[in-house]
Design a protein that fits this description.
Radius of gyration: 21 Å
Order of helices and strands: HHEHHE
Shape: elongated
Low-confidence stretches: none
Mean pLDDT: 93
Number of helices: 4
Strand order of the largest sheet: 1-2
Strand content: under 5%
Number of strands: 2
């Protein structure tokens, strides 16, 4: 049972990190590069945001679900005497916790605010991508967007720490008895 749980947790963590990496470093930049080139498929940044937004929102949900499952799995394994790399410092659990908190803040606080500001800017200018960059509403949007992006990257780094730690499990050391002569 422990071997299956360790392997499953490792595979799920690897997939989780892979999804976050692909969204953060491949999909999002690619969409905004297409928007900058006025591609017919992604003609402006508003379309790029509309395409990547639901994916990032879903990745937050995935992070919350995976985070809860990994904490439960790591707790179970610890109770059975199996600890991951950095086990004394609880690095895996801390990594999962940081990633989950970042996802929660993005999901419940920043994403709704960003969507609301994006809608207000679209109403004011006819389309989000036409918004004046000096508009205080756009400045607020930009600041929240940078915060959200930073939290996403911190969450990715924390999940990566968890993945690295989970590649090595060992049996917990009990206090060795000192033999007396």
């Amino acid at each position: 049972m422990n071997r299956v749980l360790k392997s499953s947790a490792l595979v799920i963590t690897a997939l989780w990190v892979g999804v976050l990496f692909c969204l953060g470093f491949i999909v999002a930049p690619y969409l905004f590069i297409l928007a900058a080139k006025n591609s017919p498929s992604v003609p402006n940044t508003g379309v790029a945001a509309d395409l990547i937004g639901p994916l990032l929102y879903s990745s937050d949900v995935i992070s919350l679900v995976v985070g809860a499952g990994l904490v439960a799995a790591l707790f179970y394994l610890r109770r059975r005497g199996e600890v991951p790399l950095g086990g004394r410092l609880f690095l895996s659990e801390i990594g999962v916790g940081i990633a989950a908190v970042c996802a929660a803040v993005n999901y419940w606080w920043l994403a709704p605010q960003l969507k609301g500001l994006q809608g207000q800017l679209a109403d004011r200018y006819g389309a989000f991508h036409k918004a004046d960059k000096a508009d205080p509403l756009f400045v607020q949007f930009n600041g929240l967007h940078q915060t959200s992006t930073t939290l996403f990257m911190i969450g990715l780094a924390a999940a990566l720490v968890c993945l690295v730690c989970m590649t090595q499990f060992r049996a917990r050391q009990t206090n060795p008895q000192v033999a007396t002569a």
